[in-house]
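Hey team,

Sharing the HAD family hydrolase run so nobody has to redo it. Sequence (261 residues) first:
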Amino acid sequence: MKKYKGVLFFDLDGTLLNRDSQISLENLWLLEHLAKQNYLSVIASGRSPKEIEEITEQTAISSYVSLNGQYVVIEGEVFADHRIAPELVDEVMTFSQQLGHPVACYTPTEYRVNFIDEATKKLYQLDNAPLPQVDPDFQTTVGVNMLYLFSEKISDDKLLEEKFNEVLTFYRDSPFSIAIVNKNRSKKAGIQELLTHLELTDLMNTYAFGDGNNDISMFEVVKYSVAMGNAGSNVKKAATFVTHDNETNGIHHALQHYGLL
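Structure output:
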């Protein structure tokens, strides 16, 4: 097993990606530079493996923590595949439909939604991604790693959490959506699995970059945590360093700050 000088975890949207949901030329160069210095770059995202692999195809990245810690790939090999129990999937979808909210079911390779509303359209427009296909029976034929509920009605978040708090974890990651995973699963949990497997017990050279609520957990398991300038105030408060935003070389500035450039 290859030994690395350190490891860096990058969120995608609002962090490594620009407003067009692409890795800029500047950030592509930075990833190449880190690899030459024997640092392992890992994607830590709520996005699906399929999306991550498409986004990073121009890079040498082959490790990622996806679907908010539910699916972990290390150096090209699947290491963890956590799924939501089928009966829980059905319960969430039934309850959400009663509230009027659609839910998408995510697997490592595909995703489908039971119906589409305005919140769904707004989320995928924000992510510069195509709308998922509609298939209300998709979850009956596949194992589901993550549920994605679409809602702009923040008051309903509490109803969901009260009903399912004992068995599921919820991350509101945009004004239009909530990611749902198994209880106590998170980017942090996936990162811990990866670090243990790579025998990286010394956390001195571990870094995490993010901008969203679901990034706070991974800040807890690394030595140095970087909040992007476009992050919310709660994310900035949880970080050890606040850099520029993702459109003004925020990652470059943070790497300079920590002496990695």
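The longest helix spans residues 86-99.

Ping me if you want the raw files.
A.
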